[in-house]
């Protein structure tokens, strides 16, 4: 079964309190060298049938109209999942 991955991130001008909290915690946990963190969301859409461009286009439309809030978020990626 094929899957489409949709990744959504807050727009750069939007405050990201979760990312800021993670950025503050990393050095306390021994992870140094990171200057910032932005936290986003990932959706995986399972596809019934063979992967094709029409399905990917439907996923792009769903990403912009349903899965993201265009006022505060950007859809940064819509792609077929890599099979592991």
Please sum up the structure shown.
With 84 residues, the protein is α+β, with helices and mostly antiparallel strands. It contains two helices and three strands, in the order βαβαβ. Keywords: ATP-binding, Cytoplasm, Ligase, Nucleotide-binding, Purine biosynthesis.
Molecular shape: elongated
Rounded to the nearest angstrom, the radius of gyration is 16 Å
Report the CATH superfamily.
Answer: Phosphoribosylformylglycinamidine synthase subunit PurS
Largest sheet: 3 strands, antiparallel
Number of strands: 3
What is the oligomeric state here? single chain
Please state how the strands of the largest beta sheet are arranged side by side: 2-1-3
Structural class, by secondary structure, is alpha+beta
Structural domain count? 1
Strand content: 25-35%
Low-confidence stretches: none
Series of H and E elements = EHEHE
Averaged pLDDT: 95
Summed up, the helix count is 2
CATH topology: Mth169, Chain: A
Distance between the termini: 12 Å
The CATH architecture name reads 2-Layer Sandwich
Task: Describe the protein in words.
It comes from Ruania alba. Keywords: ATP-binding, Cytoplasm, Ligase, Nucleotide-binding, Purine biosynthesis. It is an enzyme of class 6 (ligase). The protein has about 80 residues and is of the alpha+beta class. It contains 2 helices and 3 strands, in the order E-H-E-H-E. It has a 3-stranded antiparallel beta sheet with strand order 2-1-3, with helices on one face. The mean pLDDT is about 95.
């Amino acid at each position: 079964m094929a899957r489409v991955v949709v990744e959504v991130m807050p727009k750069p001008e939007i405050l990201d309190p979760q990312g800021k909290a993670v950025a503050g915690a990393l050095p306390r946990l021994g992870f140094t060298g990171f200057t910032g963190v932005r936290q986003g969301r990932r959706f995986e859409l399972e596809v019934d049938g063979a992967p094709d461009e029409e399905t990917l286009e439907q996923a792009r439309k769903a990403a912009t109209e349903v899965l993201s809030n265009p006022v505060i978020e950007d859809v940064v990626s819509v792609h077929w999942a890599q099979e592991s």
